[in-house]
Amino acid sequence: MRACIKAGIGVLVGIVAGLSLVSGLPAETTTGADVAIVVNPDNNVNNLTMAELRKIFRGERQYWSSDSPIVLLMHAPGARERAVILRSVLQMSEDEYTQFWVAKIMRAEASFPPTAVFSYAMIGEGIRGNRGAIGYVSAKAVPVGLKILQVDSLLPGQAGYPLH
Amino acid sequence: MHRSSWILGLFLLLPVGVEAQTAPAEQEQEIREMRARIAELEKKIEGMRADKESGQIALDTPAPADPGEQTQVAAASAPTVGEAAEPGPAQDHPAEHADPAETERPFPNLHFRGFGNLNFSATDDPTTKSGFNLGQFILHVASPISRKVSVFGEISFTAAPGSYTLDVERYLIRYDLNDYFKLSFGRYHTPINYWNTAFHHGLWLQTTIDRPEMIRFGGRFQPVHFIGMLAEGVVPSGALGLGYNLGIGNGRAGSIARAGDSGDINNGRAVVVSVFSRPRAVNGLQVGGAAYHDEISPSPALPGNPSFRELITSAHIVWSRGAPEFLTEFAHVRHQSELTNEVFNSQAAYIQFGYRLPGVARKWKPYYRFEWSNISPSDPLFAVSDPTVAVRNLAGSTVGARYDIVSLAAFKFEYRHTARNPTDPLVNGLFFQTSFTF
């Protein structure tokens, strides 16, 4: 028992020492236009809180209502908008996001990861053609025919808007 | 043990070499992909040029260079509820003629995933031998057959002396009504234990090499699998973020390490209830508890042919963010003989810390786990003569590090120090594992 405790203390000391060695590294930053959350115009939701948005993008909330499943559209890796969602909403790295969905599917909480889209055209048509779809685009280039949601009661461009 | 330690020491140096060898390969792959992307863009530009000359416009890039002409600009004054929803001829994005079906999935569709691992172990326990062993080969299948109905399956191939055993680990169909109520039927991972449902056969998913002993493969302390029906969902609870599982099924088989796949051993159904909270304010935190009740009729029968009432209560606190990672679970198992009314109480717990290092060291996650169990020595369901299946006392520490080679494969290195009963010798061991998903 005493040996166990000693081993535990040794590990904790090692962790602290390791952290002190690698601390001070610059954090990853992203700059650019706000990212707008967009849905089908028939969707009667107008505002989502960051917590609600996080639940949707984590696949924890899968339905708008009983007859309307949420269809998540994610930009493919490499898009700046995706990086904003990962950082601001999910608070995950690209690797963590991949691992998160592998785990979620393994637990049978979802059947597949969010659909990856490669262009604004796909986002536009995907959302216009599906009442339950939700996606995101640069606020400077929102495809017409999509409804822009408020996030924490703020629109893109307003002071304090969280997705940028 | 000594020689094996040197061998394992060599493995400890392996990640450095692997990184050096894989980095150029990854760069080459990246360069190939970039070249392909450039070629594709050049082709598109040629097409656009041709279209422009013929009086058309075709723009299909993720970020239009001049979005004002083809898109709306979201701003504080922008309409939020579909005022610009009707795409007028002057506003419409001429390029947005992608097929909506591209973002929809036909039903049924089938998704495969696999998990695998290979292990090396060396201990100073004279009853075991050092060496490599092939871990389980897991195939996981998920198939939505409609928007609200999905089928999941999981099979395992496990190396055994002289053969491989094939087992259906999970097999279920789930009907989703909404987020609050999802009903499924089949064979599950019993939601009595966080580790059991969160990681289970996906060893790559878990930070450590092995599970805590309280929920180990083939273990008897808690029922790992459950056959029956399960309702699950979230509870409208605002900031608390409550969720639940409620199941009824066959519970343990005659051999209590197994579930009653082909039928219950008696007429007493097992019932499991679990509740958890994922507080809105603390992203990554989960707190929960569960209760499980069953009637156990051991086979072969014990003297007097007693059945036992089993009540398991458990609790967990999990902080699942990698920096830091924190997991702790406690379980209390109560068995009561229906023949003598004698009660046997046993407990087990573990606590685990991990920390994903930041910056250039982010592929490394050192970790530590302490686990403990206090098993009733007279419990006839646990105190069996075969030491390989007996549930015994434990106090042990695990110290290790995980190195993620790529995002879907990892190396893990561990040292374990384990004490059983006062009369048993202390056991020290070194372990290595590579685990992956594909």
Give me the secondary-structure topology:
The complex is a heterodimer of chains A (164) and B (438).
Chain A: H1 2-22, E1 35-39, E2 47-48, H2 50-57, E3 63-65, E4 68-69, E5 71-75, H3 80-90, H4 94-106, E6 115-117, H5 120-128, E7 133-138, E8 142-143, E9 147-151
Parallel strand pairs in A: 2-9, 5-6, 5-7
Antiparallel strand pairs in A: 1-7, 1-9, 3-4
Chain B: H1 2-53, H2 67-70, E1 71-72, E2 111-123, E3 131-134, E4 137-144, E5 149-160, E6 163-178, E7 181-189, H3 194-198, E8 225-235, E9 242-249, E10 270-277, E11 285-296, E12 308-319, E13 325-337, E14 343-354, E15 364-374, E16 394-406, E17 409-419, E18 427-437
Antiparallel strand pairs in B: 2-3, 2-4, 2-18, 4-5, 5-6, 6-7, 7-8, 8-9, 9-10, 10-11, 11-12, 12-13, 13-14, 14-15, 15-16, 16-17, 17-18
Explain what the structure shows.
The complex is a heterodimer of chains A (164) and B (438). Chain A contains 5 helices and 9 strands. Chain A is globular. In chain A, β3 (63-65) and β4 (68-69) form a beta hairpin. In chain A, 38% of the residues lie in helices and 20% in strands. Chain A has a single domain (35-151), classed as 3-Layer(aba) Sandwich (D-Maltodextrin-Binding Protein, domain 2). Chain A is of the alpha/beta class. Chain A starts with a helix and ends in a 13-residue tail after the last strand. In chain A, the strands form 2 sheets. Chain A has a 6-stranded mixed β-sheet. Chain A has a two-stranded antiparallel sheet with strand order 3-4. Chain B is mainly beta and 438 residues long. Chain B folds into 2 domains: 2-73 and 83-97, no CATH class; 189-437, Porin, CATH 2.40.160.10. Chain B is globular and about 85 Å long. The interface between A and B is large, with 82 and 94 residues.
| Percentage of residues in DSSP E strands of chain B | 35-45%
Our count of domains of chain A comes out at 1
Q: What is the CATH architecture term of the largest domain in chain B?
A: Beta Barrel
Our measurement of the CA-to-CA distance between the termini of chain B, rounded to an integer number of angstroms, reads: 33 Å
What's the main sheet of chain B like? Answer: 16 strands, antiparallel, barrel
> Helical amount among residues of chain B, as a percent range?
10-25%
Unreliable stretches of chain B (pLDDT < 50, length at least 5) are 7-23, 53-70, 77-98
Overall body shape of chain B: globular
User: Which segments of chain A are poorly predicted (pLDDT under 50) over 5 or more consecutive residues?
Assistant: 15-30
CATH topology of the largest domain in chain B: Porin
What would you give as the CATH superfamily of the largest domain in chain B?
Porin
What's the helix count of chain A?
5
